[in-house]
Every structure is written in C-alpha cells, then in structure tokens.
Design brief:
Blueprint lengths: L2 H19 L2 H8 L3 H14 L21 H13 L5 H10 L6 H10 L5 H14 L6 H10 L1 H4 L12 E11 L3 E10 L5 E6 L4 H18 L6 E4 L13 H8 L3 E4 L9 H21 L5 H17 L13 H7 L15 E2 L6 E2 L18
Parallel strand pairs: 1-4, 4-5
Antiparallel strand pairs: 1-2, 2-3, 6-7
Helix pairs in contact: 1-2, 5-6
C-alpha cells in the first residue's frame, strides 16, 4: 500500500467516525483534522467519490500554459548545440535577430527540462552529438587512415588448411665473379610454413615451373593434398599472357588459382618475405663465411640440409604455429586426417579408385656449370 492510499483510507475513516459519533468536532479531535479540512474532504468525497480522497498537487496539469512553443524550443536546442558556451541572455539576443521572440527565462527553462543548465552539460551534449555523427570518407582518407591504423597493420594472411595458399617469390642471393647473379626460387605453404627453395643462375619462368613441378607438387601429392591458390608478386617469372606464359600455363594445367599482390606492396606476401629473411640470416650469411662453394650443386646440397632441419626439427614461432615444426603443422592441416596408401609402383593412389597416378615428369631448367661464390 502506497502513502497515497494510506492518506485516502485515513480520510475515509474520518468520515465514518464523524457519522458514527454524530459529532464532527469530536471526530476531528480524534483523527487530528480541523473542521475546515473535514468539510473540504466531505465535499470532495461527495463530488468525486473515492478519487476525491486522493491529494492533488496544486498547479497546472500537463504542460504549463506559458511554456514556449515547440518550434522555439527546437531553435533554442539547436543554438545550444552550435554555441554551447552562450548564456541565456546571449541566446535571447541571437534568436531575436532571427525573428524568434523568447525571454532569457524561457531559454533557461528549456535548458532545465533537457538537463543543459550548465556550460559543461551543453559541451558534453555537443561531444556526444559529434561522436554519433556519421562521416563519409573519401578513398584517399580511407587509405591514409588504414596506413596508420593498428588494426590495418595487424591484419594477417589467412590459410585455414594445408594447400589453401602457397606463396612463391624470387630472391637475389648474390653474384659470382665470372658467372653473374644467383637467384633463389622459394615457395612456402602459408598454413604450415613448410618451405621449398632451389638455386638458379637466372629467374626465367622455367625456373619457377621447375620448383613447383619437381619439389612442391610432389610433396602435396604424397599426402593426397591439392594446392588451391598460389600467391606471387607481379614479377615477369610469374606473370604474363595467360595463353603464352609458361608459369601461367602450368598453373592452368594443374587447376591452381593464381593471385598476385599489389604493385610495390611486398607486405601482401609477407610470409614468403619473412622466409627469405630467415634463409638469409640463418643460412646464407653463415654458410657464405664458413664454406667455400665452387658449384651450384654444392650450395644446393647444403641448402637442402638446412631445409630438412627447418621443416622437420626447427620449432616455428610464426602466428598460429604454437612452437610446432612445419612438418607437423603440414600433416595436422591436411583436409583429411587419414593418410592415403600409395601404389607399389611408386604412383600415388587416387581416392575412391583402384588406380594410381603416374609419377610426375621432371622439368629441367637451363643447365649452368658456372662456379658460384656468395656475397
């Protein structure tokens, strides 16, 4: 029971007591009311019934008849949003110049109803309104914001399983007196970080095809996995006319999608770029000062030994690797976990069929017997 209900019941008890005693003065003394209050309560009860026993606050009911019009109130709020530091008198004068008649007290009343009496409250309203405002950005503004945004810088290449994305690139290792430049063709599975690398004395498209055909694809076929996408830069060894370029034709025959990075944007292929730095720091800069190489084959043998340790024994610290070796992550990320049997003749068993896929023919790059020396 609310306080209003208790007061109404007390007034009703006063009327009942006065009727039982047949004495208004005595009933008023017992209940603590004056005779004037008694007659007022009885009159309200006779006129309005039970609702007349409820106390009604004095004053106008609903909006005050002297309240400013809605359009004037909207003009006051708009001015407060545009000039939050103006006082009520200044607002009155500014609105009068616009043909709106309102007193400074009316301005203050509008502020009071909307919680804007103080300058601090009006400034907070301006700050909130600005934060909620939607701004259309141009392409140039979006590019600049993305360049300095931590969220943009922390975006990563996504490869949900082994073979989803293989990144390839060409790396200039050094030069040899009397021979020329030495290049390294590299490929790395972006899911498992399993790496492949082979040295060449040129970076013709046939060298990129040789690495994919002789090293990369046999590894995936041995685990009955398929490469879905290859990511490369726009180098001439990878890109060209789809109907003539050797690398483009090779990927089409293998039904592999070819994607390229933005021009002058090596970060888009960051996994293979980081693989290059690892090879340079942990292998080439060390072996180049430890061993005197005379042929490309000698350098390739030492590189193969390093890649064996890199893929099979070296714990990888890359994102999502959790200290696993690339070989372990390669097997864990296969689309089907069960290993597929291989045929007795050296081919790979085709799933769902009793036939075996013939061995892949090797692609031979341009021969080179020049002696090599690392930088």
């Amino acid at each position: 029971m609310t306080a209003t209900d208790k007061v109404a019941r007390r007034k009703l008890s006063l009327l009942d007591l006065a009727k039982d005693l047949d004495n208004v003065s005595r009933a008023c003394r017992v209940m603590g009311y004056s005779r004037q209050q008694f007659y007022e309560i009885r009159r309200n009860f006779q006129t309005f019934g039970a609702d007349g026993l409820i106390d009604r606050m004095p004053g106008a009911k609903g909006p005050h008849p002297n309240r400013v019009a809605a359009e004037i109130e909207a003009a006051i709020l708009d001015h407060a949003l545009e000039h939050p530091c103006h006082g009520p008198t200044r607002v009155e004068q500014e609105l009068r110049l616009k043909g709106i008649q309102v007193s400074s007290g009316g301005v203050r009343g509008v502020w009071q109803r909307h919680g804007l009496l103080t300058k601090h409250e009006r400034l907070l309203r301006l700050e909130t309104s600005t934060a909620e405002r939607k701004i259309e950005l141009s392409d140039e503004q979006v590019r600049l914001l993305e360049r300095f945004s931590p969220e943009f810088r922390e975006r990563h290449i996504e490869a949900p399983q082994t073979g989803s994305l293989v990144a390839v690139d060409t790396f200039h290792v050094g030069t040899l007196k009397g021979v020329g430049k030495l290049y390294l063709q590299t490929a790395i599975d972006c899911h498992s970080r399993f790496g492949f690398a082979r040295l060449y004395t040129s970076k013709l498209p046939i060298t990129a095809v040789h690495l994919m055909n002789n090293d990369v694809l046999p590894k995936f076929e041995a685990h009955d996995a398929k490469i879905k996408t290859v990511l490369s830069d726009n180098g001439r060894e990878f890109c060209g006319r789809p109907d003539r370029h050797p690398y483009e034709l090779f990927l089409q025959l293998e039904e592999i999608e070819h994607r390229t990075t933005r021009v002058k944007r090596p970060q888009s292929n960051g996994i293979v770029e980081r693989f290059h730095r690892t090879l340079l720091d942990e292998h080439f800069r060390v072996e180049g000062r430890r061993t005197w190489f005379e042929t490309v084959e000698e350098m390739q043998v030492v590189l193969d030994d390093y890649l064996e340790g890199y893929n099979q024994r070296r714990p990888h610290q890359g994102r999502g690797m959790n200290g696993r070796t690339p070989a372990t992550a390669f097997v864990d990320g296969l689309p089907n976990a069960d290993p597929k049997p291989t045929s007795s003749e050296g081919g790979t068993a085709v799933p769902g069929k009793g036939l075996s896929r013939p061995k892949r023919k090797e692609v031979r790059p341009v021969e080179n017997t020049a002696q090599i020396m690392t930088t």
